[in-house]
Design a protein that fits this description.
Radius of gyration of chain A: 24 Å
Number of domains of chain B: 3
Distance between the termini of chain B: 15 Å
Structural class of chain A: alpha+beta
Number of helices of chain B: 19
Oligomer: heterodimer
Order of helices and strands of chain A: HHHHHHHHEEEEHEEEHEEHEEEEE
Number of strands of chain B: 0
Shape of chain B: globular
Number of helices of chain A: 11
Structural class of chain B: mainly alpha
Helix content of chain A: 25-40%
Helix content of chain B: 55-70%
Shape of chain A: extended
Mean pLDDT of chain B: 86
Number of strands of chain A: 14
């Protein structure tokens, strides 16, 4: 550190001058980033401002890079073995640590933030890191509902009308309505197709085009009714006051932070015309992956699909930033209970490994030609 | 040395101009100017608040609050020069630090910097800014890293190279990790990984070890010690208090710190502690030399580059050694022998002959500064 000893100078001047001189050099010790921030970086849940500080810390520390690589390995190895959303957390303890670390900070921040909203100015301020985490979370969610990210076919077939949403477990459906209030709170209301005998915790998620979900909030459902109010989410998600399109949201029993393993299913307008609007998604038996140059997707097809859509066709496409690539088409009646769809990967230009879900997988049901 | 090109708003070399735009009527220009200024303010405040707010996460919070206050009150600020500006930033920071933890009973919130000192602060701010530019110009000249590249873009390239070459990660993973909204494309990552400037930068960042980091490495610390911890260790060594970290004696630690943290010659060390003998000093320095990391680092870089078939070997060209020598000479003001100690073993690994004569030519005959001055002059004219 630069030392100045000129006793003629005011002490305040000396402090400023020393800091100015020292600040002319690049800091060889960038501020440390904690484990939570690193986990968020590994999971891809990070804002530009936080990313810069994490990257700076990573370039300066080989140990931190090694830790990042460990986290990335855990994420990848677990991702390849996912056949059910629960197993993401149960099958791999290392992954669990990474995810829990990232989620812990996020959920703690959310809890603090909710307290801040309800307690007003007396509540301690959120830390900068917490604000960053919160912003990261909402940015991620906001992107998922951004209409421009949806392919034209996706948007056209889904429409903006209230969707029937499957609530797990069992075949409980829900009419979901989302309203954005003037104070930017988001109000969700659902009516279930059959009442729950006991109160059940039902969660609201934002659905990513590729089938991934992000948790927004949870509340108990009593009988056939369920409501959820979340303060200030709407502005962060970029939603304007009024009725919001429910097709970007989903309901599920319980509370899962990041369930994967489903692909949204869109029903064409012609079929919708026949008042057929479900199912809205299909379960993936395995995580989408590219192996030995082939792109592999394992689907489960419920009987109801074959019964209801026996005359129709199922198409699978992948949307890369608006450009839609058709991957295959099947007669629904010929579909077995489960199917590994194998496609030639080089045509997709993707390498071996887990398929990144930034491209949206679209399944669509069309009437038979 | 001509480093100022005030007409180009994109170049980070006109702090006063940015300050005027920041306080001006055009909100878009103010926002752009503040983006540039905030980086400098953050670096200044990081040091300025080090004692007042020692915890890094708290300091981060205070700095964020200061930036917010500065921006929201930009219309009230009248530009009177860099001196008053930094005095204003410092006062705002002290108040924000006090607001966050009003436990500093002796903190003077309304510290009046005398008018005669403001001129000095202005000069120092300008000098400090030019000094930053000088090092950035040295990076551009000898490493090939453009001054126009933002620190975050430079770090992303650097991280990509570190993950790919040093950690042997597959390129797909590198693309994803260094991507922003989306993974970086294959063509882009290939261009980064084969760019000589990126490879030189990566090698330079590993081979340059500042004094504090070097002393931590020599003492075998499993984590870098903070400045305060190192100061404490120095005091403990000088007073021989407590048990020294194994396998050292307090005398050895004292000698190591004086040599590698303070860059003192043997004669000066003997003067500092007349109780020490030359033999003791030589033995202690001999033990330190065995632990210097530079040769090992160079070997690991070279092996990593060969393993991943890097298109060039950045260690075999004189440029990286010039940059290192300039750094150790200009910033740490090390004597030639100590500069050689930190560079020659590593250069030898790559077959580059860095001798005392070469070093003498670069430093005493002023070849490095002359080359840098010529380059800066040429750049400022273009």
């Amino acid at each position: 550190m630069t030392q100045l000893n000129d006793t003629d100078l005011h002490p305040g001047t000396l402090a400023i001058v020393e800091a100015l001189l020292d600040s002319s050099l690049e800091d060889r010790r960038p501020p440390p980033v904690n484990e939570d921030a690193l986990a968020r970086y590994a999971c891809g849940w990070i804002t530009p401002e936080e990313r810069d500080s994490v990257v700076a810390a990573l370039t300066a520390s080989a140990d931190m890079r090694a830790r990042l690589i460990q986290m990335t390995e855990s994420l990848r190895s677990a991702g390849q073995g996912v056949d059910d959303r629960n197993s993401v957390f149960e099958s791999d303890s290392a992954l669990k640590r990474v995810m829990v670390s990232a989620l812990k900070s996020t959920s703690r921040v959310l809890a603090n933030w909710e307290d801040a909203c309800t307690q007003g100015p007396n509540h301690p301020e959120l830390r900068v890191e917490e604000k960053r985490s919160l912003r990261s979370l909402f940015l991620g969610m906001g992107k998922r509902v951004e209409p421009l990210r949806l392919s034209p076919s996706f948007s056209a077939t889904r429409g903006a009308q209230t969707a029937k949403v499957v609530v797990e477990p069992g075949n409980v459906f829900a009419d979901l309505a989302i309203r954005v209030e003037e104070d930017d709170s988001l109000f969700a209301k659902a009516k279930f197709s059959q009442p729950f005998a006991e109160p059940r915790e039902i969660s609201l998620y934002i659905v990513e085009p590729g089938g991934a979900w992000a948790w927004i909030g949870s509340n108990l459902a009593r009988g056939s009714d369920w409501t959820l109010a979340t303060p200030e989410y709407a502005s962060m998600l970029g939603l304007v006051p009024g009725e919001a399109a429910s097709h970007c949201f989903a309901l599920s029993e319980g509370r899962w932070f990041s369930p994967r393993g489903w692909v949204a299913l869109y029903i064409s307008d012609q079929l919708r015309g026949k008042k057929i609007t479900s199912p809205t998604r299909l379960r993936l038996r395995t995580a989408p992956a590219v192996r030995n140059g082939n792109f592999i997707l394992g689907f489960e097809f419920p009987d109801s699909l074959r019964e209801v859509f026996a005359q129709d066709r199922l198409t699978l496409s992948i949307d890369f930033g608006g450009a839609t690539l058709m991957l295959g088409e099947w007669n629904v009646r010929e579909l077995p209970p489960s199917l590994d769809v194998e496609l030639s990967a080089p045509s997709l230009g993707v390498p071996d490994g887990e398929f990144e879900m930034h491209a949206a997988m679209n399944l669509m049901l069309r009437p038979a030609k | 040395m001509a480093l100022s090109t005030a007409n180009d708003p994109e170049r980070d070399d006109d702090e006063l101009g940015k300050l005027e735009r920041f306080a001006g009527a055009d909100p878009k220009a103010a926002e752009d100017a503040f983006t540039h200024l905030s980086n400098r303010i953050e670096r200044f405040l990081w040091r300025y608040l080090a004692t007042l707010v020692p915890l890094p996460q708290d300091r981060d919070d205070v700095i964020a609050t200061v930036l917010e206050k500065l921006y929201s009150r930009r219309c009230e600020f009248q530009v009177q020069g860099l001196g008053p500006w930094y005095a204003f930033v410092a006062t705002t920071a002290r108040r924000c630090a006090w607001d966050r933890a009003p436990k500093h009973e002796f903190l003077e919130l309304n510290e009046e910097i005398p008018a005669r000192d403001l001129e000095l602060i202005s000069s120092v701010a300008e000098m400090s800014h030019l000094r930053s530019l000088l090092y950035a110009t040295a990076d551009e000249l000898w490493l090939g890293v453009s001054r126009r590249l933002s620190p975050s873009d430079r770090n992303r390239r650097l991280l990509a190279a570190q993950l790919y070459y040093l950690h042997g990660r597959p390129w797909e993973e590198v693309c994803r990790l260094v991507g922003e909204e989306k993974p970086v494309g294959r063509a882009m990552i290939d261009s980064w990984l084969s760019d000589p400037s990126v490879l030189r930068d990566m090698a330079y960042q590993l081979l340059y070890v500042d004094n504090d980091s070097l002393i931590c490495a020599l003492l075998g610390k499993d984590r870098p010690l903070s400045i305060q911890e190192l100061d404490g260790l120095t005091m403990a060594a000088e007073k021989a208090e407590g048990t020294p970290p194994t396998p050292w004696t307090w005398n050895e630690i004292k000698i190591a710190i004086w040599r590698y943290r303070n860059g003192l010659l043997t004669e000066k060390i003997l003067q500092m502690d007349p109780g020490l003998t030359r033999e003791q000093v030589d033995t202690a320095l001999g033990r330190c030399r065995e632990r210097l990391p530079f040769e090992k680092v160079a070997v690991s870089i070279q092996e990593a580059l060969i393993r991943r078939r890097a298109p060039i070997n950045p260690l075999s060209s004189p440029e990286i050694w010039k940059r290192l020598v300039f750094q150790y000479s200009a910033i740490h003001e090390l004597p030639h022998k100590q500069i050689l100690e930190r560079t020659e073993p590593a250069a030898r690994v790559a077959g580059y002959s860095l001798t005392a004569a070469v070093l003498n030519g670069w430093l005493c005959n002023g070849r490095l500064t002359e080359q840098l001055a010529k380059y800066a002059k040429k750049e400022s004219h273009e």
